[in-house]
Amino acid sequence: PFYIMECVPVSLYRLLFSQPSAIALTHHQAFHLMSGTTDGLAYLHTRSPPLLHNDVNIANVLVTETLQPKLADFGFSEFLMASRTSTRS
Predict the structure, then answer these.
(1) Which of 12, 45, 54, 82 has the greatest number of CB atoms lying within 10 Å of its CB?
(2) Own/partner pairs for 37-41, CB < 8 Å, 24+ apart?
(3) Cα(39)–Cα(69) distance, rounded to whole angstroms?
(4) Three-state SS for 70?
(5) What are the φ and ψ backbone dihedral angles of 62, each rounded to 5 degrees?
């Protein structure tokens, strides 16, 4: 499958740690980024079937100019299928 998304050139890692563009986030901004990221994960996990990202880290959270987080790099993602159970007689 292919994923098409908007161009968001800055990762959360780069935003926080790359000089000279590193910034100090306010508590409100940090909460907004964490909340938006967890909302995105909750959305993926409540699909049918659920989609597991399997590689969430600050390099895989992209950040828009308005500090909107976007999950990226679904290379290790997988759909969680209902487990098959077998019965022995």
Answers:
(1) 12
(2) 37/61, 37/69, 37/71, 40/69, 40/70, 40/71, 41/71
(3) 10
(4) strand
(5) -90, 150
pLDDT in tens, the chain (89 residues): 666 778 888 888 888 888 776 788 899 999 999 999 999 889 888 888 777 777 788 888 989 989 999 888 766 555 555 553 434 44
Q: E strand or H helix at 12, and its extent?
A: helix 12-17
Q: Which of 8, 41, 55, 73 is catalytic?
A: 55
- For residues 70 and 65, give the distance between their C-alpha atoms in angstroms, rounded to a whole number: 11
* pTM for the model: 0.70
